[in-house]
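Hey everyone, long-time lurker, first post.

I ran two proteins through the pipeline my lab uses and got sequence/structure pairs for each. Pasting them in order. The first:
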Amino acid sequence: MSERFDKIARDLFERNLDRFDQPRVPTFDRQPVHVVYGGADRFNAETPGKFGRLALASIESYAPTFAEFADAMWLKGADTLPRYTDPIRELEFKLADDPDDARERFPEAHFAWSVYRRVIQKLESDPVEDFRIDFEDGYGFRTDAEEDAHAKSAAEELSRVTEANLAFRGFRIKSFQKETYARAVRTLGIFLTEYVKRGTLTNFVVTLPKIARAEEVGTLAALLDAIESENSIASGSIGIEIMIETPEAVNNAGSLVAAGRDRVRSAHFGAFDYTASLGVAADHQHLQHDACRFARQMMQNSLAPLGVRISDSVTTDMPVPIHRGGSLSSKQNSENIKAVRGAWRKHFNNVTLALVNGFYQGWDLHPAQLPARYAALFAFFLENADAQAARLRQFVGKATKAMLTGNLFDDAASAQGLLNFFIRAASCGAMPLADITQKTDLSQEELRSASFARIMENRRS
């Protein structure tokens, strides 16, 4: 090639450098694995910790051992575990006494025990990652005096919760539809005026539901501009979270983000409002309906390139007992166990399918849903970590050999997919970074680059 051609090629690359970057891949930025929605009238500073205690109590009542827990969630290999108390305790002693040896001798038991222990530790230390104080569906319609009082008290209570106890937070106002616009704006002003006096705005969002037009998001952004200006807050500090629950929002998600002017941090799918708007009968409204699958794929196509976090919707079957009271018959106790475990399994399956399809966050509405949420999360990553690490090491070896011999390595997309698995495992806290580096033989710097192509380019350099 001529020198003139080379110069033209270099000039074109430099002028379009930002457009020649690698395709977007996941980052190590933390994403909450769930969001808990709860009515504003019931929220106080103790709510996150209370959720953890109630979740632990549900495990103690309905799956008190690791083997029962594995059976409740239908973890892989659960059918091979003992069913009676003494053999379970004996096996648990072996697992705790020498985990490495037990992993080789009892792989199914070690897997179930590891998931169970991580769920317990999570519920004890950090049960709720994201909370959305709700003034919409989870709150209903109240008098203006009631909602004013709850907006003020909920803001005060949220400001008392430390970042260590609740890393992500925010509140959901009513929609900007004509009938509720004035009430939504009033709650927005009262809550933020009270909250910004003492609360942190790190990882803080205002959630806007039932959006049909981009102008609604633009209006919220303008109102937040005014609130930040009046309170001497840096512009853009308050984030926006959009609800994708109308056909218009599904079709125009990218426009909604653009209207938010860099404020939109995340988008949450509302499966039941969405399917209702399509005329789907109530008995057939669920997360695995074809309409929901289509909407989630549309969200990914529109929002993944924009770096907006996406969240799946909610499992509406609550893991609660049918019978209440202290003196229940054995039949009633059995029915309670069956009801709770059935709801756990449904939630576990929904969370697992969401993870398979690239949705790493979803909704929870009840404390007893948390065990299934975290069981699905930890099982998803722990079950596949060793095999994925072996494949990734193999790909790195092949790519390195091709690089040294001057040949082409043509399976970078598969290698990037394997790398994505460990990036997600780290960003959601399912696996410590030190464990990932040990399994994959990649350095922390290489993992943080989040790009297989960049890793190989740096090694070549």
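...and the second, right after it:
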Amino acid sequence: MARIKAIIVKEFFHILRDPRSLTIVFITPVIMIFILGYSFSFDLNRIDAAVVDFSQSDFSRQLVNSFANNRIFVLHFPAGGTSGKSALRAAEEMLRKEKIKEIIVIPVDFSRRLTVHGQSDFGIIIDASNSNTANLVFQYNEMIVLEFMAEMKKVGQLFKLHTKIYFNPEAKSSFFFIPGQIAAILLMISAMLTSVSIAKERETGSIALLFISPLKSYEIIIGKTIPYIMVALLDGVLTLAFSRFWFGIPIRGSLLVLLIFAVLYIIAGLSLGILISTLAPTQKAAMLAAQILTMLPSYLLSGLIFPIDSLNPVLQAISYAIPATYFLRIIRGVILKGSELKHFLFEGLMLVLLGAVLLLAASRKFSRQRKAVQ
């Protein structure tokens, strides 16, 4: 027992002498519970819907008001008014850009049919690229329709809802999840490729050669990042090809557009890895940090599984700093909707900004370490 006691005391001393590990052990579970507690919710707090009202009658306004009076629905009226083909085209463009989740289309003879025949119909177009969200939107629509029909029964008038599914007619969950998986895996691989770069040189002692070299700090950081772009890009092509031929994922848009944004996304991921490498004391710590900082946020806070609108406001703010948030919209838009380059200018700008900020931070951190040694 005395010998065992000595080992126990020794191990406690080792634990107490490693405050970084203690911090990870005690802080990580709290962070995970906080994130999971707020993100594991399939409820929708907001449904953005565009209204195209060809009828422009009292009855159609009553129907629109039934959606507007519901706390979940936020109605948008396309440019050019709420009626006309131009309004419908504008609404479809909003749907493609993911500014809305559905379009409410009221036919021109809506009021006449209700008055003459005692019944009428109208249509709703739902974006089903996210099959889970589409099912919830459909259920909320049915609820409002039933409530409105109950009110209209007072005068014996009924109507029928026709739902049209866009981008994923069969509502296959694989069409929604697999592009998201590609985005999450690509970010993790990119970050891990460079996360051990400087940490490895620090462990082997070869970092001293970089410190005394005539190269500037930002040149070293950029030089360590560029070679891995091709490696990560080939990895992305492999996963996309496997998803296409094994799972039958459609590719409706331009691969060139996807390639352009994939390069920006990979650079952001590699930059994150380089920053981690400048901070981590060992290769193992760098790889662990890369996994934690890429996988958890990518799966829980980027919209891969749970809608961002359903997150806590604090987590929503954090999601804007996650590269996967923007690339998810791009890869799903290109693959499922056939979206074009013009639809993702904001997302592309954000990826460039994130990559530049991360590279700059890594370069400055490396420069400070270099000056401290010299």
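Reply from user beta_strand_b:
Welcome! Quick read of the second one: The two ends are 50 Å apart (CA to CA). The longest strand covers residues 119-127.
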